[in-house]
Amino acid sequence: MNTIVVYASMTGTTELMARTIADELTKAGDQVVVKDALEAYADELSSYERILVGSYTWGDGELSDEIMGFYDELETIDLAGKSAAAFGSGCSSYEQFASAVDILEEALKRKGCSIITAGLKADTWSDDEEKIEANCVDFVKRIITLS
User: How far is the C-alpha of 14 from the C-alpha of 20, rounded, in Å?
Assistant: First the structure.
């Protein structure tokens, strides 16, 4: 399957997630393009069968500044018939844990995407790199099984 993974990362956690997800999808036979949200354009998404978007959560549950331009562009396109999922990182010490994942998932739904599986949230407070990578592997297994 032809897949794009778009992400925004500040500390590297969401980038780790994006790269792990992309590596696992590639191992499964997908053709995968990975793009930092600052270098991605929403109108590119129509060229892909599967769309995965990730961001860390900023402040009290907001999207990161790095993904806002991409998110705003996303609101202007139609993605009916595309498969999608969201992922990202956050800190469970905040009331709104990793809510950027929920915001992105809702935006993908509004644009007509079929959500493959529930969004993947990594906890920068308690999850170590090994756990995050293992959760990404499981996320990809669900994506492949349900796509």
Answer: 10
d(CA 8, CA 93): 21
Residue written as token pair 């980038």: 15
Give pLDDT tens digits for 121-147. 999 999 899 999 999 999 999 999 998
Closest CA to 85 of 49, 59, 41: 49
d(CA 106, CA 104): 5
- Burial per residue of 24-34, b for 16 or more beta-carbon CB atoms within 10 angstroms, e otherwise: bbeeeebebeb
CB atoms within 10 A of CB 95: 8
pLDDT in tens, 40-98: 999 999 999 999 999 999 988 999 999 999 999 999 999 999 999 999 999 998 889 99
pTM of the model: 0.96
Q: Which residues contact 79 (CB under 8 A, 6 or more apart)?
A: 45, 46, 51, 108, 111, 112, 113
Distance of CA 123 to the CA centre of its chain: 15
Give me the helices (H) in the chain, please: 13-27, 65-74, 99-110, 129-146
